[in-house]
């Protein structure tokens, strides 16, 4: 440890003061150690939570003005509505899980990393099944995107950024 002295040679209490120069700072405050892409992944989880929450709200209470966004996926909306309230509840659970993943991700908790990678892996499996069942282009794009996310998220630089609290 390096000792710092003021003009009189000591700290305010008359003793030499320790300097922060040459000491390690906690990783939480060391911004340059954060893996590139860390924040966008967390924002992606928050966006997913928002969209899943929107889907849940519109599926649990159909026929409102909120249904307007479903114009982008009329077929999906009709198929989900045919499943009844269970589809809405499923999206509500997904929204909560994605929100939890975002919180754990931004707090750098190992459980947040594990939850996030698990959600992305399950999504990749769903995309693979969709591709096999008749939507090959949509499935292939989904698997490719999820695969790239998993590749990033499982790199040691990213995985080791999370703590086991």
Annotate the secondary structure layout.
Blueprint: E1 3-4, E2 17-18, H1 38-60, H2 74-82, H3 85-106, H4 110-132, H5 136-153, H6 156-159
Antiparallel strand pairs: 1-2
Helix pairs in contact: 1-3, 3-4, 4-5
The percent range for helix content is 55-70%
Number of strands: 2
Order of SSEs, N→C? EEHHHHHH
Shape: globular
Span of the ends, CA to CA: 29 Å
Number of distinct helices: 6
Major β-sheet, in short? 2 strands, antiparallel
Overall residue-averaged pLDDT value: 87
DSSP strand (E) fraction? Answer: under 5%
- Number of domain units: 2
Label this structure with key terms.
disordered N terminus; mainly alpha; 165 residues; two-stranded antiparallel ribbon
Notes on the protein architecture:
The chain is built from six helices and two strands; from the N terminus they run E-E-H-H-H-H-H-H. The chain is an all-alpha fold. The chain folds into two domains: 42-107, no CATH class; 109-159. A two-stranded antiparallel sheet has the order 1-2. The protein starts with a strand and ends in a 6-residue tail after the last helix. The relative contact order is 0.10. The chain has helices spanning 38-60, 74-82, 85-106, 110-132, 136-153, 156-159, and strands spanning 3-4, 17-18. The longest helix is centred in the N-terminal third of the chain and has 23 residues, at 38-60. It is globular.
In short:
The protein is mainly alpha-helical and 165 residues long. The protein has 6 helices and 2 strands; from the N terminus they run E-E-H-H-H-H-H-H.
């Amino acid at each position: 440890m390096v000792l710092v002295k003021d003009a009189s040679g000591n700290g305010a209490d008359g003793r030499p003061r320790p300097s922060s120069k040459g000491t390690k700072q906690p990783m939480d405050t060391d911004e340059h150690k954060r893996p590139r892409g860390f924040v966008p992944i967390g924002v992606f989880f928050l966006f997913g939570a928002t969209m899943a929450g929107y889907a849940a709200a519109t599926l649990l209470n159909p026929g409102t003005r909120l249904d307007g966004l479903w114009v982008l996926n009329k077929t999906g909306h009709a198929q989900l509505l045919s499943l009844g309230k269970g589809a809405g509840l499923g999206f509500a659970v997904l929204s909560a899980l994605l929100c939890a993943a975002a919180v754990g991700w931004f707090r750098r908790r190992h459980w947040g990393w594990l939850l996030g990678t698990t959600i992305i892996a399950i999504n990749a499996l769903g995309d693979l099944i969709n591709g096999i069942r008749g939507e090959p282009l949509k499935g292939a794009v989904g698997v490719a995107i999820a695969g790239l996310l998993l590749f990033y998220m499982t790199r040691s630089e990213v995985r080791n950024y999370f703590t086991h609290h």
